[in-house]
Amino acid sequence: MSNTFPAALGHWHNRYLLMRHGHSLANQQGLIISSPERGLAGFGLSPRGQEQLDERLADWRWARPDRILHSDFLRTAETAERIARHFGLWLEAEPRLRERHFGAFEGEGSDCYTEVWARDARDPAHRHSGVEAVTEVAARMSAVITDLECRHAGETILLISHGDPLQILLTALESRDLSQHRERASLEPASITVL
Protein backbone atom coordinates (compact mmCIF):
# COMPACT_ATOMS: atom_id res chain seq x y z
CA MET A 1 0.00 0.00 0.00
CA SER A 2 1.31 3.45 -0.86
CA ASN A 3 0.16 6.95 -0.08
CA THR A 4 1.47 10.18 -1.56
CA PHE A 5 1.75 13.40 0.36
CA PRO A 6 2.02 16.09 -2.35
CA ALA A 7 1.97 19.19 -0.15
CA ALA A 8 5.69 19.03 0.53
CA LEU A 9 6.93 18.36 -3.02
CA GLY A 10 9.93 20.51 -3.82
CA HIS A 11 10.16 21.70 -0.24
CA TRP A 12 12.62 19.26 1.30
CA HIS A 13 16.38 18.82 0.91
CA ASN A 14 15.75 15.06 1.16
CA ARG A 15 13.07 12.64 0.01
CA TYR A 16 11.17 10.99 2.86
CA LEU A 17 9.34 7.70 2.97
CA LEU A 18 7.16 7.34 6.06
CA MET A 19 6.36 3.75 6.93
CA ARG A 20 4.10 2.27 9.54
CA HIS A 21 5.51 -0.94 11.01
CA GLY A 22 4.12 -4.24 9.80
CA HIS A 23 1.17 -5.91 11.51
CA SER A 24 2.27 -6.66 15.07
CA LEU A 25 1.38 -9.02 17.89
CA ALA A 26 -0.22 -6.00 19.61
CA ASN A 27 -2.42 -5.50 16.51
CA GLN A 28 -3.21 -9.21 16.46
CA GLN A 29 -4.22 -9.22 20.13
CA GLY A 30 -6.06 -5.88 19.91
CA LEU A 31 -3.90 -4.32 22.65
CA ILE A 32 -2.50 -0.84 23.23
CA ILE A 33 1.25 -1.27 23.70
CA SER A 34 2.77 2.18 23.98
CA SER A 35 5.18 2.12 26.93
CA PRO A 36 8.90 1.49 26.43
CA GLU A 37 8.75 -1.04 29.26
CA ARG A 38 6.53 -3.29 27.12
CA GLY A 39 7.17 -2.11 23.57
CA LEU A 40 10.96 -2.24 23.44
CA ALA A 41 11.26 -5.96 24.16
CA GLY A 42 7.85 -7.38 23.32
CA PHE A 43 5.00 -7.39 20.83
CA GLY A 44 7.07 -7.63 17.67
CA LEU A 45 5.79 -8.51 14.22
CA SER A 46 3.04 -11.07 13.78
CA PRO A 47 3.30 -13.73 11.04
CA ARG A 48 0.94 -11.52 9.02
CA GLY A 49 3.33 -8.57 9.49
CA GLN A 50 6.26 -10.65 8.26
CA GLU A 51 4.26 -11.60 5.17
CA GLN A 52 3.39 -7.93 4.57
CA LEU A 53 7.08 -7.02 4.60
CA ASP A 54 7.94 -9.86 2.23
CA GLU A 55 5.31 -8.47 -0.15
CA ARG A 56 6.58 -4.87 0.17
CA LEU A 57 10.15 -5.90 -0.53
CA ALA A 58 9.22 -8.15 -3.45
CA ASP A 59 7.25 -5.29 -5.03
CA TRP A 60 9.31 -2.27 -3.85
CA ARG A 61 8.23 0.64 -6.08
CA TRP A 62 9.62 3.55 -4.12
CA ALA A 63 13.06 5.10 -4.27
CA ARG A 64 15.75 2.93 -2.72
CA PRO A 65 16.44 4.34 0.75
CA ASP A 66 19.89 5.67 1.56
CA ARG A 67 19.19 5.77 5.29
CA ILE A 68 16.72 4.14 7.67
CA LEU A 69 15.66 5.60 11.01
CA HIS A 70 13.16 3.75 13.17
CA SER A 71 11.37 3.80 16.47
CA ASP A 72 13.20 1.56 18.91
CA PHE A 73 10.07 -0.44 19.74
CA LEU A 74 10.40 -4.11 18.75
CA ARG A 75 7.74 -4.02 16.02
CA THR A 76 9.39 -1.08 14.25
CA ALA A 77 12.91 -2.42 14.81
CA GLU A 78 11.96 -5.76 13.26
CA THR A 79 10.36 -3.95 10.32
CA ALA A 80 13.49 -1.83 9.84
CA GLU A 81 15.85 -4.82 10.14
CA ARG A 82 14.11 -6.68 7.32
CA ILE A 83 14.25 -3.66 5.03
CA ALA A 84 17.84 -2.82 5.94
CA ARG A 85 18.93 -6.40 5.27
CA HIS A 86 17.21 -6.30 1.87
CA PHE A 87 18.99 -3.09 0.84
CA GLY A 88 22.27 -3.68 2.68
CA LEU A 89 21.86 -0.61 4.89
CA TRP A 90 22.70 0.34 8.46
CA LEU A 91 19.94 1.17 10.89
CA GLU A 92 19.58 4.06 13.27
CA ALA A 93 17.21 3.76 16.21
CA GLU A 94 15.47 7.10 16.82
CA PRO A 95 13.45 7.23 20.09
CA ARG A 96 11.57 10.34 18.90
CA LEU A 97 9.80 8.06 16.38
CA ARG A 98 8.31 5.97 19.21
CA GLU A 99 4.65 5.16 19.63
CA ARG A 100 2.49 7.79 21.26
CA HIS A 101 2.26 6.96 24.96
CA PHE A 102 -1.32 6.14 25.92
CA GLY A 103 -0.83 6.43 29.69
CA ALA A 104 -3.43 4.57 31.76
CA PHE A 105 -4.71 2.83 28.61
CA GLU A 106 -1.46 0.84 28.34
CA GLY A 107 -2.26 -2.85 27.92
CA GLU A 108 -5.99 -2.16 27.44
CA GLY A 109 -8.01 -3.12 24.38
CA SER A 110 -7.59 -1.10 21.20
CA ASP A 111 -11.23 0.00 21.49
CA CYS A 112 -9.95 2.52 24.09
CA TYR A 113 -8.32 4.53 21.29
CA THR A 114 -11.69 6.04 20.41
CA GLU A 115 -11.97 7.70 23.84
CA VAL A 116 -8.52 9.26 23.46
CA TRP A 117 -9.18 10.38 19.90
CA ALA A 118 -12.46 12.00 20.91
CA ARG A 119 -10.55 14.04 23.50
CA ASP A 120 -7.87 14.87 20.89
CA ALA A 121 -10.59 16.34 18.66
CA ARG A 122 -11.59 18.71 21.47
CA ASP A 123 -8.09 19.53 22.76
CA PRO A 124 -4.86 18.35 21.09
CA ALA A 125 -2.90 19.46 24.18
CA HIS A 126 -4.83 17.20 26.59
CA ARG A 127 -2.99 14.72 28.79
CA HIS A 128 -6.04 12.95 30.21
CA SER A 129 -5.13 9.69 31.98
CA GLY A 130 -1.43 10.32 31.31
CA VAL A 131 -1.80 10.21 27.52
CA GLU A 132 0.96 11.96 25.57
CA ALA A 133 -0.51 15.13 24.07
CA VAL A 134 -0.92 15.34 20.30
CA THR A 135 1.02 18.62 20.39
CA GLU A 136 3.97 16.85 22.03
CA VAL A 137 3.93 14.02 19.50
CA ALA A 138 3.83 16.52 16.63
CA ALA A 139 6.81 18.41 18.08
CA ARG A 140 9.04 15.36 18.53
CA MET A 141 8.14 13.83 15.16
CA SER A 142 8.65 17.13 13.30
CA ALA A 143 11.99 17.62 15.08
CA VAL A 144 13.29 14.42 13.49
CA ILE A 145 12.69 15.80 10.00
CA THR A 146 14.07 19.22 10.95
CA ASP A 147 17.28 17.61 12.23
CA LEU A 148 17.63 15.46 9.12
CA GLU A 149 17.12 18.48 6.90
CA CYS A 150 19.98 20.23 8.70
CA ARG A 151 22.37 17.26 8.48
CA HIS A 152 21.66 15.68 5.08
CA ALA A 153 20.74 16.63 1.54
CA GLY A 154 19.74 14.69 -1.56
CA GLU A 155 19.04 11.45 0.33
CA THR A 156 16.04 9.17 0.41
CA ILE A 157 15.33 8.60 4.08
CA LEU A 158 12.96 5.92 5.33
CA LEU A 159 11.36 6.73 8.69
CA ILE A 160 9.62 3.76 10.35
CA SER A 161 7.18 4.62 13.09
CA HIS A 162 3.65 3.92 14.35
CA GLY A 163 0.15 4.76 13.14
CA ASP A 164 -0.83 7.56 15.52
CA PRO A 165 2.53 9.42 15.46
CA LEU A 166 2.63 9.28 11.66
CA GLN A 167 -0.97 10.52 11.34
CA ILE A 168 -0.12 13.37 13.70
CA LEU A 169 3.07 14.22 11.79
CA LEU A 170 1.23 14.30 8.46
CA THR A 171 -1.44 16.56 9.95
CA ALA A 172 1.27 18.91 11.25
CA LEU A 173 3.03 18.95 7.86
CA GLU A 174 -0.25 19.92 6.21
CA SER A 175 -0.47 22.85 8.68
CA ARG A 176 -3.88 21.57 9.73
CA ASP A 177 -5.22 21.85 13.24
CA LEU A 178 -3.78 18.93 15.19
CA SER A 179 -7.23 18.16 16.57
CA GLN A 180 -8.00 16.84 13.07
CA HIS A 181 -5.35 14.10 12.99
CA ARG A 182 -7.96 11.32 13.02
CA GLU A 183 -9.76 12.86 10.05
CA ARG A 184 -6.98 11.52 7.85
CA ALA A 185 -7.44 8.04 6.42
CA SER A 186 -5.82 5.54 8.79
CA LEU A 187 -2.37 4.32 7.80
CA GLU A 188 -2.41 0.56 7.36
CA PRO A 189 0.36 -1.66 8.76
CA ALA A 190 3.39 -1.73 6.43
CA SER A 191 2.01 1.18 4.36
CA ILE A 192 4.38 3.77 2.94
CA THR A 193 3.62 7.47 2.51
CA VAL A 194 5.89 9.52 0.26
CA LEU A 195 6.67 13.12 1.24
From TrEMBL:
Record InterPro entries: His_Pase_superF_clade-1, His_PPase_superfam
Name of a matching Pfam family: His_Phos_1
Gene3D superfamilies membership: Phosphoglycerate mutase-like
Top-rank lineage group of the source organism: Bacteria
Protein name: Probable phosphoglycerate mutase
